[in-house]
Amino acid sequence: MTRSQRLVLIIAILSTFVSFLDGTIVNVALPAIMRELGGGLTAQQWIVDAYLITLGSLILVAGSVSDVYGRITVLRVGLAAFGAASLAVGLAPTAEFLIIARGVQGIAGALLVPSSLALITSNFRGPAQAKAIGTWTGMTGIAMIAGPLVGGLFVDFASWRFAFLINVLPIAVTLVLLARLGQKDQREPGVSIDYLGAVLCTLGLGGAVFALIEQSTLGWASPAIYLPLVGGIVAFAGFLVRQRLAKNPVMPLGLFRVRNFWAGNIATALIYGALSLSSFALGVYLQQGALLPATLAGLASIPVTVIMILFSSRVGVLSGRYGPRLFMTIGPITAGIGSLLMLSISVPFVYWWQVLPGILLFGLGLTATVSPLTSAILGSIDPSRSGIASAVNNAVSRVAGLIVIAMLGVIVGGSLDLAGVHRAMIAVAVLLILGGIVSFLGIRNPVHEVDAADQASAMPTGSPERQA
């Protein structure tokens, strides 16, 4: 690598690291936030979903923003906004203030991931680019390990507020490195931003999520619930119509004509919805129900991330050899069985027998799923459209988590007590097993050129199939 390429890779890693770190810290910090600021389960849902609403709805349009205004400019704005929002979260005097600040964090986070990836792809070519993206992906995995542990340590030995304020330091370092990089910004001519589509998507998701979270307080018969729900559905329908008619849609609906793309995204919604529900329910219950310190609650799910880091690349190789369908079928079902093992959680609580076996099986299943899932979706799309395909898949995973957390009250029965966490684990298992079934029925393994040649050579000479 040249000096410039090294700086680019460090900047891209740090930019994404803060977003991933924040996303993994929050579940561990939720019980401490509730004790200090109040609000109960509803406030906890909003603290997670305020971030996911803005992130999930704007990450599609962020790529166009980066092309229009320049990747480095957008990265600077995203970093500064994320730092300011993190500061606001750490100093929040009320739960309502914190929720608004989390929404701003989501807007900033939507700018960071596409811009950092675009910075890599514009500075690296060929094998060097693949290696740089692999390094970038591996370092974000470290954020998944560090987040719960860092959050738990701050909650137990200082304050949950410091868990969010810690973002300010890497953001400041990244802004300094951007200044030292000294690259001229690149802007793509002829690219437009679909502002109307972004607004309709945000209103659609926001209205539906508001109704799902607040219905437990106000009831479905309240106009304050059914009007936002209907309005949200209408707005999201308008977003889909806009994507069909827009000259440069942020979510080209034509992509969903590809079998592996639509089937893979349905599987993504089910699997990542399950993952969000599991992380939230376990993170909160282990502290409020099992009375574990925040640090131990953060460490409880670390085996999943360690297994993924150790074996994901190997699974990717096997998936490339045998095709993704088998792994996408067996993986989610295995993870679902791991979730069902956690129904053994009881009083008195013993992590080693009641949680760890299920966590290990869950981690193995998830590891068998993630890499093949990504390759099945992106491998089915022309490489020239892989960027938008990746953005759509990323948005689907975020929105799935958003909807599942919004429905948490309905799923667990209003409280994350022992019965509630059991209901959550059953829901997680159902979503995962459905993800495996969808993959089995919908995903098709790609036909490699070597396989096609072998099939042709096995056909009789002069047959129409062989001639074709």
UniProtKB/TrEMBL annotation:
Classification via Pfam families:
MFS_1
**What Gene3D superfamilies is this protein classified in?**
MFS general substrate transporter like domains (1.20.1250.20), Multidrug resistance protein D (1.20.1720.10)
Q: Which PANTHER family match?
A: EXPORT PROTEIN (PTHR42718:SF42), MAJOR FACILITATOR SUPERFAMILY MULTIDRUG TRANSPORTER MFSC (PTHR42718)
> Membrane-crossing residues?
7-34, 46-66, 73-93, 99-120, 132-154, 160-181, 193-213, 225-241, 262-285, 291-312, 333-353, 359-378, 399-418, 424-443
Q: What is its main location?
A: membrane
Subcellular localization:
Cell membrane
Species of provenance: Lysinimonas soli
Describe its membrane topology: Multi-pass membrane protein
The alphabetized UniProt keywords are: Membrane, Transmembrane, Transmembrane helix
Q: Know the name of this protein? A: MFS transporter
- Identify the residues that the record assigns to the Major facilitator superfamily (MFS) profile domain, covering every copy: 8-447
